Amino acid sequence: VKSLVESHGAKWSEALNRENTLVAVNQTMVDYQHFIHAGDEVAFFPPVTGG
């Protein structure tokens, strides 16, 4: 996951930083060290606020 984010440049790396963004691969929560494979579904969950 980490290399996927980094491959998209600094804006992605800043926006999807590990401190406050969750990530799921194939609908399972994982950490940024998780390996992804062709065909995997990757979802990022940035912090949100509601009211």
TrEMBL record:
Pfam families: ThiS
Entry-linked InterPro entries: Beta-grasp_dom_sf (IPR012675), Mopterin_synth/thiamin_S_b (IPR016155), ThiS/MoaD-like (IPR003749)
Top-level division of the source organism's lineage: Bacteria
SUPFAM superfamilies assigned to the protein according to its UniProt record, in alphabetical order: MoaD/ThiS (SSF54285)
Protein name per UniProt: MoaD/ThiS family protein
